[in-house]
Design goal:
α3 packs across α4 and α7 packs across α11. The chain has a 5-stranded antiparallel β-sheet with strand order 1-2-3-4-5. A 5-stranded mixed β-sheet has the order 10-12-11-13-14, with helices on both faces. Strands 6-7-8-9 form a 4-stranded antiparallel β-sheet. It is built from 11 helices and 14 strands. It has helices spanning 8-15, 19-26, 77-85, 89-97, 104-132, 137-145, 217-226, 246-253, 266-280, 291-295, 300-307; strands spanning 33-35, 38-41, 53-58, 61-66, 74-75, 158-162, 167-174, 182-187, 193-197, 202-204, 210-214, 233-236, 257-261, 285-288.
Amino acid sequence: MKGISVSDGDKRLLKQLDLNRFVQEHLDMKPRGRSGGITYYFSPLRKETRPSFAIECYHGEWRWRDWGGDDEDRGDIIELVERVHRVKFPEAVRILLSHEYPAAYYEREAETEKRDREAKTAYARWLYTKLLKVNNVDTVAAYFRERGVAYHFPIGSALYNDFKEKKVYIATPAPTPWDLTALECREIKGDAKKTLGAGSLWFFERDSKKILITESILDCLAGEVLLDDREMSLCALNSASYVNQLTDFLEEHNPDEVWLATDNDKAGMKARDKAIEMISRTRTQIVLVEDHFRAGVKDLHGLLAANS
């Protein structure tokens, strides 16, 4: 089909199609597992013995990623059809538009995703309430102090003893203790980390229109030391993949300045580019913090440790 044109509205609707239902009914793919709103399949792009092809719906748009393939093996429904059928964009759109999709294609998974997120959030809140009853603030503060940063009591971190794993974590509520959707857990005597609940940004708000954005909570706390600024607000992505949540965050808080310090690695660079794109749509001024790049370390906490 030559000369096909597709509007932004058409593309948006296609990205809202239930991608799980599409691959099952049109590509004959069978789900092999589901975890945290993500459904796993055997890859349609290559042979594999473990299902690593992931599909999830985020903010109303469906995305896929082939974790066993290259970094470029990811995208939306149009890009999937291009890859599977080995066609260009116009033909992929023609294939998609040649089908009629019932309303359930737009409704079912959105409702499932919402229920998953609500269940995760409820679990995180229940667990946090339980942890606070046996918390040891001195031990929590010592964890941060030993890493060269200050612990501010309103952050609300708590000890989490995972008896199954036989590990003790510092569990920090995100985005805040008063509106938490997740607990960001970091092992006290090791490098293990995990998220319990529905992952989100972490935010420590102060009376300032200036916000430092990093990838981790420790990086934020290291940043206030390195920049000698204890008045700025702090925001941690908690994962480079959460950078898309910045749009709503910026709209809600409307800062005058954002100081941006993502990690010095491939994922961090991608997150930085995406964050700059989002911030540029607002009136917020961007200041890039690159001291850790020049020092050849991964992040601000690494820079603080190197300077100690």
